Amino acid sequence: MSELMQQLKACLAHVREKTDRVPEFGLVLGSGLGFLAEQVENPVVIEYADMPGFPVSTVEGHASRLVLGELSGRSVAIMQGRFHYYEGYPMERLVLGVRLMAQLGAKAMLVTNAAGGIRQGMKPGELMLIEDHINFMGDNPLIGTNPKELGTRFPDMSDAYTTDLREQAKSIAADLGIPVSQGIYAAFTGPSYETPAEIRLLSKLGADAVGMSTIPEVIAASHMKLKVLGISCISNLASGISDQPLSHAEVTETAERVRHVFSRLVIELVGRLKID
Ligand code: HPA
């Protein structure tokens, strides 16, 4: 068995010592939404630090634990706190949590992030359903040996952000009276924010928003044939789009401001999305 599969099996065994729960949904929550893990009913909490090979998030405000339980009556696994490439972890380690959620039985993944808005007319606080991505991180989590148990060597990415889930999400959001847009998410590694020239480049290439996460997780999820719904909270206008310098404080302030409506949307989506 490959080293990766051994590691995954060890993580799986560790979780299975604590719970038999089979999650339907895996949730990877970015800035501001980690608190949803506290609303899980019948929670079983597993610290990443207790799982072999699991990295621990170093970003302030990001907890590092996996929470299994029920949200909106649905069986879920929530990664409270996610890992970033800029923290220095290899991509393969970054996606261990997503792979573990699939091994636990999850059929779909809901991933959220904060992102800078590029498309004209975007406003901080806007929620954008991710339609597709552009990977400018210069790496891919699938580089290396490819355990067949996980997926094919050359996975198709033409519907990595599952169209059906996105269409359902649009109608659920409309039902709730929560405005959502749709767009293309691009990511650089960070941790420095982009330059105005980089944002002009991304704009010309068709990107609507930019961030530093999500793409590795979605590639790994899609590789394992999980359905994916991605949502960006536009926390700021991207570099050079406004004359304000960018700051992490602005990102967290916006995430905090919209967290009520964003979390309501996520809770309803978890309860109402049909996965198959
Ligand atoms: N750029 C990159 N990542 C981000 C941004 C941004 O403007 N806002 C939130 N995350």
CATH class: Alpha Beta
So what's the overall shape?
globular
The residue ranges in which pLDDT falls below 50 over 5 or more consecutive positions are none
CATH fold assignment: Rossmann fold
Query: Which CATH architecture?
Result: 3-Layer(aba) Sandwich
Let me know the CATH homologous superfamily. Nucleoside phosphorylase domain
Descriptive tags:
alpha/beta, 7 helices, Rossmann fold, 276 residues, binds hypoxanthine, 9 strands, single chain, 5-stranded mixed barrel
Write the layout of secondary structure elements.
Blueprint (H helix, E strand, L loop, with lengths): L2 H16 L6 E5 L11 E7 L17 E7 L2 E7 L10 H4 L1 H8 L4 E10 L9 E9 L27 H14 L4 E7 L8 H9 L4 E3 L3 H9 L3 E11 L10 H25 L4
Parallel strand pairs: 1-4, 1-5, 5-9, 6-7, 7-8
Antiparallel strand pairs: 2-3, 3-4, 5-8, 6-9
Helix pairs in contact: 1-3, 4-7
The protein binds hypoxanthine.
The site of hypoxanthine has 13 residues, from strand 5, strand 8 and strand 9.
